[in-house]
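User: I'm curious whether this sequence folds into something compact or stays loose and floppy. Could you predict its structure so I can see for myself?
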Amino acid sequence: MTTSVTVLGLGAMGQALATAFVRAGHPTTVWNRSAGRDAELVAAGAKSLRTVAEAVAASDLVVVCLLDHRSVHEVLGPVADILADRALLNLTSTDPRGSRELAEWAASHGIDFLDGGIMATPPMIGQPGSSLLYSGSRSVFDTHRATLESLGSAEYFGADAGQAALVDFALLAGMYTMFAGFYHGAAMVRTIGMSAEDFGHRASGWLAAMTGSLPRAGATIDSGDYSKPFQPLDFTKAALDAIVSASRDAGVDLDVIGAIKNLVDRQVADGYGAQSSERMFESLHPRGDRAA
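Assistant: Here's the prediction. I'll summarize afterward.
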C-alpha cells in the first residue's frame, strides 16, 4: 500500500519534499503556518489542511521541515498525542544535540522518531544526486524506506538520533570551507582583472581533481601514521607563507587562508615539519581519541 505523508512547513525545501511525494504517488497532505504557499501543490494533487492537528491526523508518516529547532517544538508540542500513533521524521536543520533532544521528547510521548539531514538543494530533491542521511528509529527507516527514497538516496547511520545531523554538518563544513577558499582566490585574481566567473571555471576542474585524493588523506588520518608524506608540512608551510604574502599584496583579508596557515604553523612549531600535511588534522582534533 502507498504510504500517506504529511509535510509540515512549506518553505523552499518543504515544498520540494511535498512535490516529490506527490510525484511518487503518495497521498500527500501539507500545512504551513502562513497561507499562500500551497497553491501549486494543491493543483498537483496534494491536500492542504488548516490546522496542524488535522494535517498530522491525515497521514501515516509526518515529515517536519520548519525554520529551526524551536519551531519544531512550537508546532509539534500541541499535537503530541496525535503523533503517538504515527511515524515522525524531522528534516529541519537541527544540530546533533537538538536531534537527540527531539528524540527524547518523542520517546516520552510514545512517538516513533527518525531524524534526517538533507544533502541536496530544493531543486535536487527527487532527482539523481539527491542524498538524505537518517538516524534514530530503525523501524521508521525500514518501514518507510521506499517512501524516503522518493526524495533521494537513503542512508541509515544508527539509533543515535544525532548521528545523521553530525555527518550532515561535517559535510557542510567541508563545503563551506571550500567555497570560502574559492571566494578568497576570486578576490586575489580580481586585482589583475579576472572575473569571479572566469576564475570559477578554472577552479571547478582543479578542485574536482583534488577532491579525488580525500579518501587517501582520510586513510592516512585514520592510521595516525604521518611518516610517509606525499607532501610534508614544511612544503605546505612554504606554500601558505607565499600565498599569504600574495594575498596581503593584493589587499585580500586573511580570514580564510590565515586559519589554514595557523593549523600548519602549529604542527611545524611542534616539530612535525617533515611529516605529512594531513597531520594538520591533529591541530583540529588534539585529544587523540580515534573511533574504533
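Summary: The longest strand covers residues 112-119. The chain is about 50% helix and 10% strand.
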